[in-house]
């Protein structure tokens, strides 16, 4: 009796799965379209992520270059300060200041 009950439960579960599959057949085309759109979106996101990763790597390299040049700049400033050498003001400094003032 227990064995027959187990068989009946298994049969009912399989029948429910098959009925669910049959119900979803009319929606198959719609579901395929949704899956295709989702795949296209994922492809776009993968491309954007790859571009972002490349930009991060480039930025990291630039930061390494900047970081490695800081001691040189500080050493030059220290040398100039010790020897009382003044650097002429750079022409773009005043333009940046003027632009900043105009923006405010």
Whole-number total of structural domains: 1
Helix percent band: over 70%
- SSE run: HHH
Shape: rod-shaped
What percentage of the residues does DSSP assign to strands (E)?
A: under 5%
Radius of gyration: 35 Å
Which spans have pLDDT < 50 for at least 5 consecutive residues? 93-104
Summarize the main sheet.
none
Distance from first to last alpha carbon:
88 Å
Number of strands: 0
Structural class: mainly alpha
Multimeric status of the protein: single chain
Tally of DSSP helical segments: 3
Overall residue-averaged pLDDT value? 80
Protein name: HAUS augmin-like complex subunit 2 isoform X2
Organism: Zalophus californianus (California sealion)
GO cellular component, one term: HAUS complex
Pfam family, one: HAUS2
Describe this structure in words.
By secondary structure, this protein is an all-alpha fold. The chain contains three helices and no strands. It comes from Zalophus californianus (California sealion). It holds the Pfam family HAUS2. One of its GO terms (biological process) is centrosome cycle. One of its GO terms (cellular component) is mitotic spindle microtubule.
């Amino acid at each position: 009796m227990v064995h027959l009950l187990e068989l009946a439960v298994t049969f009912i579960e399989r029948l429910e799965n098959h009925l669910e599959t049959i119900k979803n057949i009319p929606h198959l085309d719609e579901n395929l379209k949704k899956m295709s759109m989702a795949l296209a979106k994922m492809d776009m996101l993968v491309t954007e992520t790859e571009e972002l990763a490349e930009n991060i790597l480039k930025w990291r390299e630039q930061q390494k270059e900047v970081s490695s040049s800081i001691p040189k700049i500080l050493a030059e400033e220290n040398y100039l300060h010790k020897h009382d050498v003044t650097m002429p003001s750079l022409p773009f400094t005043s333009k940046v200041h003027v632009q900043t003032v105009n923006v405010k």
